[in-house]
Task: structure prediction
Amino acid sequence: MNSTKNGKKSEYCAYCNHEGLIKNSEAYVLGEEPLSVCPKCVKPSCRCGGEEPYFYTEEGKIKQCSCRDVRLRIAKINSIYKNSGIDKKFQWRFLNEFNVRNKNDERAKKAAYSIITRFPNIDRGLYLWGNPGTGKTFLSTIILTELIATHCVSGKFMKISRNFFGKLRSTFVEGSSMYGMASQIERELAEVDILVVDDFGIQRDSAWEQETLYNLVDARYEAEKFTIFTSNLDPGIAMKDLSEGRILSRIKEMCYIIEISGPDKRVEK
Ligand SMILES: [Zn+2]
Ligand SMILES: [Zn+2]
Result:
């Protein structure tokens, strides 16, 4: 017993997809823990009872429990997730919940699946666009959730809104609690492994806002970081004049552009 050493993937079973942990897609409904150790390959040999720091005693000696790597990984994922900025109503939702109702949905879901399974071996991000209510934000947060939960990578969700720019602007105001934090915020957004930029393209009025966005997009392009944009705007038409087309050409280079239009899914609920 207890021959499991370190968190080598091959030591976990097919039931948990060789990850050692299980994703609970009903967690958000039932209020349960979203991630747990695999009941088939990890839990049976656990001797610590899931108590931190995951050690047990045998013949008077303290030993590391075989569950420890997986439990530490779950703790790390949870901590990344807590700081990801994903809206409560979209938290811990997985790809099986994205309903396909037309060809656009099908293509978008396929692209999402391909990203989730091939990460980090993917050459481009995604630009999801279409009319409101088609599930663009939902799908983008699903991809973010799946990638964080599977690969334990850092990820952030940012909504482009007046609020976002207001916050960024206040970093330049002396006396504001955010004063001086602009470069820190910008660096974080440029360096995070996965970034979702939600509602891209609404900020059309100020040159400063356009420049800020262009710099962010450009920084992620240069660092070859994975980025998902969602937008109500057809990139071919709407963004031609945005920053003299510079943002558009960057996005075209760094993303697959996928339309996800159709009836408003929110109406049915
Ligand atoms: Zn397993
Ligand atoms: Zn244990």
Remarks:
- The longest helix spans residues 103-118.
- The first strand starts at residue 21 and ends at 23.
- The chain has a mean pLDDT of 88.
